[in-house]
């Protein structure tokens, strides 16, 4: 066996193996002796709690850096090497995010200015508490459509009609929709914190690739259909539930003669 092992090793390693003389001794133990030996080194519960509540300067600093990572990397930030590139990157992203945030606010059924709020504050919060250098934080089209389905179903235009001409009170409608979107964001955040505490992220490993591709494809179709009323300048009724997407397409086709020519031309040029 020793010759077979040396034949598989390089020459230098085989020479070192010849010159070494290994001598290993271990006591023979049965299962009971092994369990007793393993329990000898386990800490008592009182010692564990006492260690957990110990406080020192190093422990407090480690906890502070754990929950505020910006304090650990910002003092070591190389200004001369990275500042110019980061400024150019931030400027280019801001130029893209400005119209994108306005459009995603319309997808959520909110005033456009709230798209700018949601484009700035989440990134600023992640700057303080985030740990990844490559993650992208910001508004998301599919999430905006999902929020818009909630706001438009719970606060439709029909609930805010006023006057003889049955005009929509947009101020009251937008105010109520902002309350709905804020409440929804807080509830979703609480659910995410709870799922994170119980380590529920393992479910992602069971999602197959066809399922994820089907979801993203359906989401793109959903976003495309939700933009048709802005492309043609139409006023559509809010729909939700099964087959709402098909009903929306049929309503758009029936109202095509009422399209605004300037809006259509602008949409084609920008597209």
TrEMBL record:
The chain crosses the membrane at residues 104-129, 180-202. One of its GO terms (molecular function) is secondary active sulfate transmembrane transporter activity. It is a multi-pass membrane protein. Pfam families: Sulfate_transp. GO terms for cellular component: membrane. Keywords: Membrane, Transmembrane, Transmembrane helix. It comes from the Eukaryota. It is found in: Membrane. Residues 83-269 form the SLC26A/SulP transporter domain. PROSITE patterns: SLC26A (PS01130). PANTHER family: SULFATE TRANSPORTER (PTHR11814). This is Solute carrier family 26 member 6. It comes from Neovison vison (American mink). The gene is S26A6.
